[in-house]
Amino acid sequence: MDASHRNRYLEAIGVDVWVRRPGGPLGALEIPERAQALAPQPAPAVPTLEVAEATEPVSDLAEPWQALRTEILGCTRCGLHKTRTQGVVGVGPQRTDWMVIGEAPGAEEDRRGEPFVGRAGHLLDAMLRAIGLDRRTNVYIANVLKSRPPNNRDPKPEEVAACLPYLMRQIALLQPRLMLAVGRIAAQNLLSTDMSLSRLRGKVHHFGELNTPLIVTYHPAYLLRTPADKRKAWEDLKFARSVFRELTDRVGIDGNLP
Ligand code: URA
Asked: Residue 12 CB: number of other CB atoms within 10 A?
């Protein structure tokens, strides 16, 4: 990837891009250009990731996806159904290589019925675009909880227990090659651990019977509050991309990442 492309991705995420002072001597101090994380801007033209061929025709997946969707929308397994506007299933293709898992719908997601469509979602989109992923074409985005907890409080264990089977069915249908858990709640629940996010980052975990590689990074809402950590999130994304590339090289499929 050339430097100007890379800088555009970083700017979209809001990572400081360091540029050489014009006309400055070699070794002169570099100055940061403050990137505009959430300013409306056209998406950088990123080559999209080529999706591996599905092992089953997508038409065979339509029915189980529809059944799952109907169940989630009508779910009353925990008390959250009383306060939510609607269940939020997920967004993306019915089978795909990448899956992103967050915590729970917020106010905007509850209103619109789609995960990560608020401020944090805009940042997540930019983060994904930076590694060639797009929510409608080659990544599936879901949450641990399908219903919004009031006032965005942390999910209760019994709510997670009630909702996790839906996520498991989503994972079984998607058969992702790589999962990205964003934030502590998603990471801890998927990995059944109480380890801190900082200890979970930077390594490849494995999920479920298929041993799907799982990588942990910061939640975009946290990054909006703590922009200094965006650079670490960028490291996580590059790490995820390299793990995916290694995987696709090993199995000989064309995972054509930028
Ligand atoms: N935060 C999440 O974890 N998920 C969403 O869908 C929105 C915000």
From this structure: 25
What's the rounded Cα separation, in Å, for the pair 202 and 13? 19
Quick: pLDDT tens for 82-118.
Answer: 999 999 999 999 999 999 999 999 999 999 999 999 9
More confident: 29 or 223: 223
C-alpha 154 to ligand 1 mean position (Å): 12
| Pocket residue to mutate for ligand 1, from 85, 86, 103, most atoms within 8 A of Cβ | 103
- For the residues 125-138, what does the mean pLDDT come to? 96
* Residue 39 predicted with pLDDT over 90: no
Selection from 86, 101, 94 nearest residue 144 by Cα: 101
36-45 LR contacts (CB < 8 Å, sep 24+): 36/11, 37/12, 37/13, 37/123, 37/126, 37/224, 37/227, 37/230, 38/14, 38/119, 38/122, 38/123, 38/224, 41/12, 43/12, 43/125, 43/129, 44/5, 44/8, 44/9, 44/12, 44/129
The residue whose CB lies within 8 Å of the most ligand 1 atoms, and thus the one to mutate among 116, 152, 170, is 116
26 C-alpha to ligand 1 centroid (Å): 45
Sign for the CA dihedral angle at 128, 131, 133, 138 comes to negative
89, 119, 143: which to mutate for ligand 1, most atoms within 8 A of CB?
A: 143
Q: Give the Å distance between the CA of 87 and the centre of ligand 1.
A: 13
For position 9, what pLDDT does the model report? 64
* pTM listed for this prediction: 0.83
